[in-house]
Amino acid sequence: MTRVRLRRWPAFCDVRQDRPCLWTAVAKDTSLIVFSLQVVAPDERRTALLRALGALLGPTRVAPGCLDARLYSDLDGRRTLLFVEDWESREQFERNLDTAKLNAIVSAIELCSEAPVVRLDAVERAEGMDVLALYQGITPDVQ
Q1: Residue 70: pLDDT band by 50, 70, 90 thresholds?
Q2: Which residue of 3, 35, 90, 123 has the lowest C-beta tally within 10 Å?
Q3: Which residues contact 92 (CB under 8 A, 6 or more apart)?
Q4: 123 - beta bridge partners?
Q5: How far apart are CA 95 and CA 46, in angstroms?
Q6: Which residues of 129-138 are buried (b: 16+ CB within 10 A; e: fewer)?
Q7: Structural domain for 9, as ranges
Q8: Number of domain units in the chain
Q9: In this structure, is residue 143 part of a structural domain?
Q10: Domain identity same for 2 and 21
């Protein structure tokens, strides 16, 4: 495990207002991997694209190392779809990216009216509701 010292917002939160508050977080040695594919579908191909990307969700979600797989539709730009996968490690992501899955992704991209946005992000640390409380100085009370 690696200890990381981070500055907390606001930068000067000490009662005397003369020194920054620091807190220590424990970071994992491995990074969470987030794969995302953003596509724009013409109206006449939107249903086919939703089916093509939606068909990837089930097998991906049960794959070893997959934390989550989701498909979103932008409420404002109805034609924009976002496919997202979260993985425990890059090795597990790569192990799942076989020829059949690559072909399915390429087939989905071919239905698009614009160039896709493909990202593979390594997230070093993920935090939840507690981080909001940290910044606001409140205790989360989620029921």
Answers
A1: very high
A2: 3
A3: 33, 63, 64, 65, 66
A4: 32
A5: 29
A6: eeeeeeeeee
A7: 1-29
A8: 2
A9: no
A10: yes
Q: Report residue 98 as tokens.
A: 């076989």
16/38 same-domain check:
no
Q: For the residues of the chain, what is the DSSP string, one character each?
A: -EEEEEEPSSS--STTSSS--EEEEEEPSS-EEEEEEEEE--GGGHHHHHHHHHHHHHHHHTSTTEEEEEEEE-SSSTTEEEEEEEES-HHHHHHH--HHHHHHHHHHHHT-SS--EEEEEEES----HHHHHHHHT------
Does a structural domain hold residue 14? Answer: yes
Q: Are residues 68 and 87 in the same domain?
A: yes
Sheet containing strand 80-87, strands side by side = 66-73, 80-87, 32-40, 117-123
Contacts of 122 (CB under 8 A, 6+ apart): 31, 32, 33, 34, 90
pLDDT tens-place string over residues 11-39: 333 444 444 443 334 444 568 999 999 99
Look up residue 60 and give its amino acid.
T
